[in-house]
Write a structure and sequence with these properties.
By secondary structure, this protein is mostly helical. It has nine helices and eight strands. It has a three-stranded antiparallel β-sheet. Strands 4-6-5 form a three-stranded antiparallel β-sheet.
């Protein structure tokens, strides 16, 4: 396995966004700082959803430039600086393998079925066999690894190894809810016991009220509306 320099979670998000936008919206690529920030904070196809500022994204981009994973572009027709990734060249990846890693960096561990569907919007992956043919080399290189199924599922999942802290590998409460396995709090008191306890409480309060009324010399209205001395 090759030596991998770990990425910070936000660095992984930025690289994933740059790869995604290159493959899905090539006419808008390379990306400006504003577009990169918007892609990082996008609410669809992202987990977790972030709220990074342009300053935070710029700091991470600068670090990725120094690492050789991102390059600056200065279009002749614009004063706005843009950014492109060197991800494929750096790791010697074709577009499909880069898309797989980008998807895992942006959204976290996924099953084969989910991964195929989501990667297919970036690079054609017609079936699970083709996905496996692209996953296996990434696993052998130590860029991707297999992890246990999420709660409520039997499907094996896959996680990227470039940014180990980007996503939790254990099932989350949200995942449990999506799988329909939300735990229900046990009912501590059966209905009959609850009614009995309530009746005792009412009786005790009535007795206390009667004692208080007697001390004050005030009549108490009974259940039928008459007054009791």
């Amino acid at each position: 396995m090759e030596e991998i320099v770990p990425l910070e979670p936000n660095e992984a998000r930025i690289l994933g966004v740059l790869v995604e936008k290159e493959l899905t919206t090539p006419d808008q690529y390379p990306l400006s700082l504003n577009a990169t920030t918007a892609g990082c904070n996008q609410k669809s196809n992202r987990s977790p959803v972030l709220n990074l500022s342009e300053t935070e994204v710029q700091m991470q981009l600068d670090k990725l430039v120094v690492a050789g994973l991102v390059g600056r572009v200065h279009p002749a027709s614009s004063r706005v600086e843009r950014f492109r990734h060197n991800f494929r060249e750096h790791y010697e990846l074709d577009s499909t393998k880069a898309a797989i890693l980008a998807e895992l960096m942006m959204r976290g561990p996924q099953s084969r079925g989910d991964l195929r569907t989501r990667v297919n919007r970036m690079s054609s992956v017609e079936n699970l066999e083709l996905l496996a043919a692209n996953l296996d080399p990434l696993i052998k290189r130590g860029l991707v690894r297999r992890i246990p199924p999420a709660a409520g599922s039997r499907a094996e999942r896959f996680a990227q190894c470039l940014a180990p802290d980007a996503h939790p590998l254990e099932a989350t409460p949200q995942a449990d809810m999506a799988a329909g396995t939300t735990a229900r709090a046990p009912r501590s008191t059966p209905p009959d016991d609850a009614v009995a306890m309530l009746e005792k409480r009412v009786t005790r309060l009535e007795r206390q009220l009667a004692d208080l009324a007697e001390k004050l010399g005030e009549p108490i209205e009974s259940g039928d509306g008459s007054l009791e001395n």
